[in-house]
Amino acid sequence: MKHSLDILVVGGGMYVSGRGTNSYGTIFPALLEARGKGHVGRIILATTNSASARQALSALCQLAEKMGVDIDADYFPKNGHDDRAFMDALNYCTPDAVVISVPDHLHAEVGIPLIERGLHCLMVKPLAPTTSQAKALARVAAQSGVVCQVEFHKRLDESNLILRDSVRSGRIGEPLYAVIEYSQQKRIPRDIFAAWASLSNVFQYLGVHYVDLLYYTTGYEPRRITAWGQKNYLVAHGVDTWDAIQAVIEWDKGNGQQFISTHITNWIDPDESSAVSDQKINVVGTGGRIQADQKHRGLQQVRDSEGVRDLNPYFSSAFGSGQVEDPLRFSGYGIASVLQFIDDVLSFCNGQSRLDELNRKRPSFDAGVVSSAVVEACNLSLVNSKSIDIEL
Prior knowledge:
The protein is an alpha/beta fold. It is 36% helix and 27% strand. It folds into two domains: 5-152 and 327-361, NAD(P)-binding Rossmann-like Domain (Rossmann fold, 3-Layer(aba) Sandwich), CATH 3.40.50; 158-313 and 372-389, Dihydrodipicolinate Reductase, domain 2 (2-Layer Sandwich).
């Protein structure tokens, strides 16, 4: 009976450790919560250079102390720069699973050799920026017979679960259209992701969340996309990517019933905005409507040093002072998505669940291919200034 997993984490950036922000990230808090429950053993960190790896280890150890959790961790590479440190780590340890949080275009390059070595895999979204890479990942996952999931945490947001139930139960009738607005402060691509933001864009990195959510919510398949974009601010600041992208996706249920979604995204919200991201969704059906403002959750904080901040207590919240008598604890759907993966792997390893069951319930790599196909078609539409059929 397996009770804990040794975890390899590839990447040490904002989402992993909170680097470049005043937060703790999402991956480290979740893994330490799982370690506190006895579900995670050793944690191995792999980045591309020893300085960032040591920085990630330091952040992990500091957070572990604040959470009152003992830690068994190591890092790679030990010296200099090494783009393949994640594979070198396997010469010194034998992890059970890997969490991959690297730039989009590296997902297949990093993920495929690790999955081929038998590691269960949690991949941050998107699965890949192209359909061919996504299908290659899904094919290797199937051949290796391991648990592979995409970290689409919006599937676990309670407001989105209500949205899904409203659509699947027919309470709002047949879905007709959806409008999504999603944006992020400009400092994210300009400063924090400056090294690789030109290889991605706001729809690929952020908008993909709501593509997967609509697929998960409605059961419809995307057929066609038309996209428009504007370049101005980010190009002028050395990042050659789109300031804003607007996309219209045509979805089909297979019985002639059509559903349209409009995605309005930008990566240049003011840095003084009251939240890192601004996000709204509105779904209209023949029998009703359901909408959610997923920025204004009703919790606002005002400080002399920071001004007004709209907080989302449901994504990742820290509770406690971090002192011995009051250790930090984390909860929220961002944390839950990582914990769910760990629980699923343990359940699978212990023969308590089958892979086909997990793949039906979770954002599997096969499901991730769908949103990756939309991302690729969107990028083609932007470049070619025309509608693009989505090839699944």
